[in-house]
Structure formats: structure tokens, C-alpha cells
Amino acid sequence: MTKAKEKGGKIVSVDPRFTRTSSKADVYASLRSGTDIAFMGGMINYALENNLIHREYVAEYTNASFIVKKDFEFNDGLFSGYDEATRKYDKTKWAFETDEEGNPKKDKTLTHPRSVFQLMRKHFSRYDVDSVIAVTGTPKEDYLKVCETFCSTSKIGKSGTIMYAMGTTQHTVGTQNVRAFGIIQLLLGNIGLPGGGINAMRGESNVQGSTDFALLYHLLPGYVGAPTAIPEHATLEGYNTKETPSGGYWSNKPKFLVSMLKAWYGPNATKDNEFGYQYLPKGNKNYSHINLFNAMYKGELEGAFLFGTNPVVGGPNAGKEKEALSKLKWLVAVDLWETETSAFWQEEAGSDPSKIGTEVFLLPAASSYEKEGSVSNSSRWMQYRWKAIDPKGESLADLEIIHMLVKNIKGLYKNESSAAAKQINALYWNYGEGHHPDIDLVAKEINGYDLTTGQLLKGFGDLKDDGTTSSGNWIYSGFYPEEGKNRSKNRDNKDTGGGNFLNWAYAWPANRRILYNRASADPSGKPWSDKKAVIWWDESQKKWTGNDIPDFKPTVAPADAGGTNPFIMINGGVGGLFAPTLNDGPFPEHYEPFESPVKNAFSSQEINPAVVIIEGEFNLKGDSKKYPIVGTTYRVSEHWQSGSMTRNQEWLSELAGHMYIEMSEELAKEKGIKNKDKIIVSSARGDIKAYAMVTKRFKPHMMNGKKVHQVGMLGTLAIKVRNRGYSKPLNTSYRGCKHDNP
To answer: Beta-carbon neighbour count of residue 522 at 10 Å?
Structure first.
């Protein structure tokens, strides 16, 4: 960012706290946590009202022209089709009008009153500047400066990117927060261009790779939805019928799924068992983080594996999560060293070991420097990392730990015939003998094979649904082709044009660096701007060429069917300003956070009406009168994630030696708190001790004449702060993992 600034670029920082990034920004605006949609909704309205949109891009490359059926309505915070009893929407009420062939009806003039464009304009007209800042608490001058600066990127030859972290997604409206980013970027024409897009700043070097490979409970590798216990998913045919769209590249989902099953079950994946589909578990549980620990707490789970995670420090309800662990029969913690989670049962951790029946196994794992393998960054670049040093002590790489576990588990079930045994025995595990699997065989399995020839595939376009191809993850197919080496090891740092460095590492899919890059050129195939050129149509060669891999078949001419559809993954091929498939609405709408001390100014719906509310002790709600202060959480470079690594590093521990709470000078004065005072911060879920950091980085927000304070910390929401004047120092024995940070 600072390099871009040196070349004339502008940095806009929007954050509840004046951060180190804010100090480098050209424009800074504060906002109250949980008001992102109001903030972005106002910017969308600003762009529309001031005609600061890339109109041709919007008309041609988004669904702005689509006509929505008369069933669609929006009243007082609710979209049509809402069922209060189930807290769910009937999304058929949000459908598009279609012609006799099933294609959406369009009005490219964008004037039809039920066009997406006009419905969007009406929806966000409520987000005028004064209404927005009354909710966000942003100073009006700062807010207008943000809108003016960022919306200027709609001009031909300019582009702007939005970078966000977990402050956007970890909300009851997290999906719609990102949707709001998508809408403004589509209106400004910033998707598919260099310097554009929406970029998640991951908290760890391989978060992108871990989600690609099914870190999330409801997905299989490559973002293929996991089957569930619904009747339609009982068979492979039923799953494919329900989950495969009629258009867009996801229409190939059956090929991705069958090829993945062939990679997992090998010769045991046959037509008789639907290529192994019958081996897949099909549950009905929502095992997202809180639900998972709630299930442990209620005794519904007997055991758990925790790889490199420390929920007793980092969980959203850490105290209850610690109790939940005590309900398990067994726990396997795989980590670099003992953490608060693996030691939750110990007396020094505040537990009574005699009352805890959980058998805990701690498996020492190798750090990233002590093993080899790939990581994928936020740009989807899969980069191989070679081992720097040998692992310490008895620690092993995760791949080795999993390899040994599976081989031993398969051995235990070898002579059994139960349902569980059939699944485990069917698993094809062919990565070499002994404790050390051949990582090259794992990489090749991910890439995939033509099973009729035994050769490695050259890309996901070769995948089939008839059992003749395999691929552990379709989006990575092509990184290890038959004729070449592991392309994630590529290290040619010469710019191949447009800053794309096509010979450095491998970017999924197909080594493409900019997704939806068809949108970088106008409908005729000519770049919108020569200095922002990515790909273009070469009439003499009858194909697309340029500085990147075209994000579609390169011989599809602009005049061909689909030749002007950049968003190939979406049914219809255009960007979704209106999203009729999301659970909580086709347009983003501001709702207050679950424990907000502020009433919703936009409707009578206080919280997201479609959000899943977890009942019971795992989701205790703080009363706004008792807990009137807003808390935001964040990381600092010296203290990362749950601190498992940083708190065991003596130099970093010296730099950030204590848990602290940042607060404004005004709040400190109200509470009689001085800098470095020892204080207690409380929520409905517990108390935490910390040191006060009185700072100018926070300011109270004035909203409709009401002062709302906000503090910054590492782990709670609705809170109150009080001065307790402690005389004893906090327990900060980092090497022993006793940091007082529940």
C-alpha cells in the first residue's frame, strides 16, 4: 500500500480505532463496530445519487438490468417471504422474471421500476449521509471524504481495492457485509481489473489454503457443499440434481465431486456405491464453532481432535468452551507445545483434575519451518515451502501425524464389517510405507489423474463424472501436470506483464491471477484502459490474449454466446447486485449486533431476522443497560491470534507483556481510570483482568445526541469497565502458558 501511495495512490482507512494503517492513510474515518452495512450502504447511495458509477460495466456485466417478479417487497427491515416461526425466508419470492426459454428478462436502459438497478436505488436511498452517520458515529466531513475518494475509482483508467479482515466477516451479518463490498465494487467497475477486487487479509499464511481444502464444516474440498441428511442427498443422483445449477461453471459440480471421491476411495469407488458417495457421512448438525462446543457441553460428542487451535483463549465463549472440553471422553491436541486448551484439566489452570474425566493426548507438532509443503495466500497463490531445520524433539509434521493415525485406525478396523468399518476400510491410503508419507504422491493426488492412462491431468477441464478421472481438489487440478514439475515450486520473479508474475508459484484456478478478468475489457473485447489492460480480444488470431490467463475459454469471441459474461461461476454469467440465493436477503440491510446498546434506526428489526440464535448458556446476552460499552477486538503484530506462538517467544512477550484494554480519554475520565491501571472488563459471559491503555486512538461516538463509548481488546462484545485498583501483578508466565486471558 505504501508503494502505491508513493505512485499517487490513496489509502482510505475505516476502523473503530486509529490504527498504524490509519496513520499512513490519506483519509481516515471511524465507525462504531457492527455498522459496516450502514457505512457501505451510504456509499452505495452516494455513488448512485452522484452518478459515480461505471454505467456500461453495470449494464453489461451485472444483473442490474434483470427484472424482479412482483412478489418481491421490502418493508420495515424484512424482505418478502419471511417466516417468523422458523426465522427463514421463502427465497422463491425474490425470483427474476423469465422468458419462454427460462432466461431472465432484462432492461438494459436500467429504467424499469422492477429492474434490479431501480430496486437497489430505492433500497439504499434510505441510507442518506445524515442517517448513516447517526448510526455509525462517523464525523460527517470524514464520511463524505471517504465516499468522494473511493467512488472516484469508477473513472476509466482507475481502480480501487477493498481489503478487509475478520472485522468484516465475524458478525451476525458477516455475509452481507462482504456483499455490500461486492455491490460498491461492481457499481464502480472494480472487479476483474488490476488493483481492484475485494481482498481478505488473512490472519495466517495458509488460511486461504485451509478453506480451499475444507476447513469449514459445511464444505468439501474446492467449495463443494457437503451432503446432509435431507432426502434429496440420500443418493448421488439426488445430490447432483438439487445442488448443481443449470448454468455457470458450477454446472460441472458432478465432475468435481465424483473425481474427488475417486481420489479418496480409489478402486473402492465403484458405480455400485455411487463412486463412494455412500461412504460420505450425511448429518443434520450445524457444527460451526459455537455449536460444536455446545454439542460437547451437552454430551453429544465423545471426543475431539484440535489441530493448532486454542479455544480456551481464542473462543467466543472461552469459559464455557473450557467446561465443554471436560465433558469429552478424550481429547487429542496437536500443537507446537502445551496450550491453555491442552492443559485445561490441570489444577494450575483453575480446574479440579479429580472431577474431569477427559483423557487428553498432546501430540507435538512441527512448526512451519520444520516441515515442507505448500501454503496458499489471499491471492490464491499456492507456494511450496522447503524445510529449513529438522523438527525438535519428537515433534512431527501434521502430514506425518495424520498418516500415522489413519494407518493405525485402518488397522484397527481391518477385520470389522460395521458401517463405520466399511467407510474406513474403503479409504484409499497409498502414500508410501512407514511413518513418512511421500508428499509428492499427496500433491499428485490433489492434481488428479486420467485413470484410463494413469497420467496426471493438465487441468480441471479434463475432469469427468464417469469415474475415469480423479482429483483431490478440482480448483488445484493443473498445478502438477504430467509434462512438468510441481508448479507451486516455480520461482521466476520476472513480471510477465501487469504485475502478474505468472511463473512465480501457481495460482488456482489454471494459474489465473485475476478472477473474472473478462470484465477488464469492454463488451467488444477492448481494454477499458490501456494502462489497466489485462486481457483483450485479438481478432487476427481469433482468441483472447494478454497478461493473464483468460477466465473462460480463450476462443469465445465477444460476439459469441456468453462472450460478454465475465462472472463464469454464477448462473447467468454476470455479477450479482441482487442475490436471490442468500439466506438473509438479496440486498444488504443494516441490523444491530446481538448485544448492541443502540436501537436500530433503519427498522424495527433489531438483529438479523435470519441469523441462527443459539439458545442457552453458550449464548448469554448482555443487557445494554448493564453493559453499555461497545467492544471491538483485534490483533497486534506483537500478539497474534490466541498467542500460542507469540506468547512463547520471549522478545515478543517483552514487547507486549500484558493483556490491555484501549479506551478513550473521555471514558477513562468518566470511570476514574488512569493509564496502566489494573481493571476488570465484564460481559454476560465472564470477566477479564487487564491493564488500561488510555489513548487518543479511540473517541466516543455521538449518535442522535447519545454518547456511546467503545474500547478495543482481544475478546468480548457487550461490556462494562470498572476500576478495581489491583495491587498484585497479572500472571504473565508466558513460557508456562499461564497468561490470564480467558
So the answer is: 19
Residue 693 grid cell: 491503555
Q: What gap in Å lies between CA 586 and CA 461, rounded to an integer?
A: 32
User: What's the alpha-carbon Rg for the chain, to the nearest Å?
Assistant: 27
Interatomic CA distance for residues 629 and 215, integer angstroms: 34
**Burial classification of residue 634, based on how many CB atoms lie within 10 Å of its CB (0-12 exposed, 13-18 middle, 19 or more buried):** middle
Per-residue cell: 570: 454464477
According to DSSP, the residues that pair with 519 across neighbouring strands are none
Identify the helix (H) or strand (E) that includes residue 664. strand 660-664
**pLDDT the model gives residue 729:** 30
Strands of the sheet with 630-633, listed across from one edge: 630-633, 710-713, 660-664, 686-695, 678-683, 720-723
Whether the CB-CB separation of 130 and 136 falls below 8 Å is answered with no
347/446: higher pLDDT:
446
Least confident of 24-28, 60-64, 524-528, 627-631: 627-631
* Separation CA 198–CA 578 (nearest Å): 17
Strands 701-703, 543-546: pairing is unpaired
Write phi, then psi, for 421 (nearest 5 degrees).
-65, -35
Give counts: helices (H), strands (E), the chain. 20, 29
Could you read off the pLDDT of 349-363 as tens digits, one per residue? 888 999 999 999 999
**CATH architecture of the domain with residue range 289-413:** 3-Layer(aba) Sandwich (3.40)
Phi, psi of 309, rounded to the nearest 5 degrees: -135, 145
Count of all residues that appear for the chain in the document = 742
Which class would CATH give 1-191?
Answer: alpha beta
**Share of the chain residues as helix, strand and coil, in percent rounded to the nearest 5:** 30, 15, 50
Judged against a pLDDT cut of 60, whether residue 111 lies above it is answered with: yes
Percent with pLDDT over 70 in the chain: 96
User: Residue 170 burial by CB count (10 A; 0-12/13-18/19+): exposed, middle or buried?
Assistant: exposed
Judge contact between 638 and 652, C-beta under 8 A.
Answer: yes
- C-alpha to C-alpha distance for 687 and 725, rounded to whole angstroms: 15
DSSP string over 5-48: HHTT---EEE-SS--HHHHH-SEEE---TT-HHHHHHHHHHHHH
Domain locations in the chain?
A: 1-191, 289-413, 514-574
Can you tell me the distance from the alpha carbon of 283 to that of 304, in angstroms, rounded to the nearest whole number? Answer: 17
Concatenate the DSSP letters of all residues of 256-292 into one string: HHHHHHHHHHGGG--GGGGGGGGGS-------SHHHH
What is the largest distance, in Å, between two alpha-carbon atoms of the chain?
80
Q: What is the pLDDT of residue 185?
A: 98
Cβ neighbours around 287 below 10 Å, total: 15
- What's the CA gap between 64 and 518, in Å, rounded? 18
Residue pair 190/532 in contact (Cβ under 8 Å)? The answer is no
| Long-range CB pairs of 270-277, under 8 A, 24+ apart, other chains included | 270/467, 271/467, 273/426, 274/235, 274/236, 274/237, 275/236, 275/467, 276/426, 277/227, 277/235, 277/236, 277/239
**Residue with more model confidence, 723 or 109:** 109
DSSP 8-state assignment for residue 79: E
> What's the grid cell of residue 445?
493426488
The CA distance from 402 to 677, in Å, is: 47
Instruction: List the one residue out of 637, 399, 379 whose CA is nearest residue 506.
Output: 379
Whole-angstrom distance, CA of residue 563 vs CA of residue 554: 10
Q: Is 389 helix (H, G, I), strand (E, B) or coil?
A: coil
State residue 658's pLDDT score. Answer: 83
* pLDDT at 391 (0 to 100): 95
Q: At what angle do helices 174-188 and 140-151 cross, to 10 degrees?
A: 50
DSSP line for 304-339: EEEES--HHHHSTTHHHHHHHHTT-SEEEEEESS--
Alpha-carbon 496 to chain mean position:
30
CA proximity to 296, closest of 331, 336, 327: 327
